[in-house]
């Protein structure tokens, strides 16, 4: 199996090392793991692509490349520049430092990488490690992802539904904020929404007198809705959420047709 991996935390991120080990185990002894990851951190860029300027790419080692672009750029680079002799069988994105559950999904570069792979017609899985008081200060805060990631990817490849629709399925996996030994299991869960909390900005004034704005995330412990991805993560379960790039609100179409006559 040939696997392409990327992330949004950058080529030197510890989560990418975890993903490399997961990918190598999934690919097997005769498989190949190719890395194309951002040269610098790209957290929060979503599905951004560098449409109006070129992306520099550098080979750092065997099957290992850094691109000055977003995770979606890296997937495009992997498919159309790095792996031109044979397309990958699977694209993995992560392991992100922090959760990509609930509304975080819409901002996530990790999700953006997996989404681009799905748009290109390839099976794709995004993986993220929720951080919290129970794991943030561990010697390896990614240990839940490291311990359970390979099995979950293998189970998804073997048993989960996959399709080749125009907007094909991809999967969003979030590991709970706890030590690996405390993970209770795996749950299929819908994307949640943390009620009453939103991204915002905070103003600061530099010594030069210039005013800058820092983006602030919402409260990650706010109620995301029972049974949702973030909710089961906080209960100690790995969440797996099937996703598509289609943003149509299908539940509203018939009512809209009635409203438009």
Automatic annotation (TrEMBL):
Residue positions annotated to bind a divalent metal cation are 8-9, 43, 96
Q: Which GO terms describe its cellular component?
A: cytoplasm
Tell me the keywords, alphabetical order: Cytoplasm, Hydrolase, Metal-binding, Nucleotide-binding
Q: Where in the cell is it found?
A: Cytoplasm
Major subcellular location class: cytoplasm
Looking at the record, the residues that make up the Survival protein SurE-like phosphatase/nucleotidase domain are: 3-195
Gene3D superfamilies reported for this sequence = Survival protein SurE-like phosphatase/nucleotidase (3.40.1210.10)
Its needed co-factors are:
a divalent metal cation
- Molecular function (Gene Ontology), one example: nucleotide binding
Q: How is the cofactor bound?
A: Binds 1 divalent metal cation per subunit.
Listed under catalytic activity are: a ribonucleoside 5'-phosphate + H2O = a ribonucleoside + phosphate
Q: Name the EC number(s).
A: 3.1.3.5
Q: What class of enzyme is it?
A: hydrolase
Say what the protein does: Nucleotidase that shows phosphatase activity on nucleoside 5'-monophosphates.
Describe the family membership recorded for this protein in Swiss-Prot or TrEMBL: Belongs to the SurE nucleotidase family.
Protein known as: 5'-nucleotidase SurE
């Amino acid at each position: 199996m040939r696997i392409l991996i990327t992330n949004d935390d950058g080529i030197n991120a510890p989560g990418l090392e975890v993903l490399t080990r997961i990918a190598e185990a999934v690919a097997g002894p005769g498989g190949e793991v190719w890395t194309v990851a951002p040269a610098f951190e790209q957290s929060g860029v979503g599905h951004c692509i560098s449409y109006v300027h070129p992306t520099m790419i550098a080979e750092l080692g065997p099957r290992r490349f850094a691109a000055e672009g977003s995770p979606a750029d890296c997937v495009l680079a992997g498919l159309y520049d790095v792996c031109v002799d044979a397309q990958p069988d699977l694209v993995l994105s992560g392991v992100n430092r922090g959760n990509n559950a609930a509304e975080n999904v819409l901002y996530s570069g990790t999700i953006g990488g997996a989404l681009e792979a799905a748009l290109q017609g390839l099976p794709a899985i995004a993986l993220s490690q929720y951080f919290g008081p129970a794991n943030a200060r561990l010697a390896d805060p990614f240990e839940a992802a490291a311990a359970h990631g390979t099995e979950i990817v293998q189970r998804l490849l073997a048993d989960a539904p996959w399709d080749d629709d125009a907007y094909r399925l991809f999967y969003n996996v979030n590991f709970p904020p706890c030590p690996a030994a405390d993970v209770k299991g795996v749950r299929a869960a819908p994307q949640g929404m943390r009620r009453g909390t939103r991204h915002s900005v905070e103003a600061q004034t530099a010594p030069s007198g210039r005013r800058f704005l820092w983006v602030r995330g919402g409260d990650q412990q706010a109620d995301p809705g029972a049974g949702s991805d973030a909710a089961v993560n906080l209960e100690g379960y790995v969440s797996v959420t099937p996703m598509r790039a289609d943003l149509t609100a299908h539940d509203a179409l018939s009512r809209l047709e009635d409203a438009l006559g």
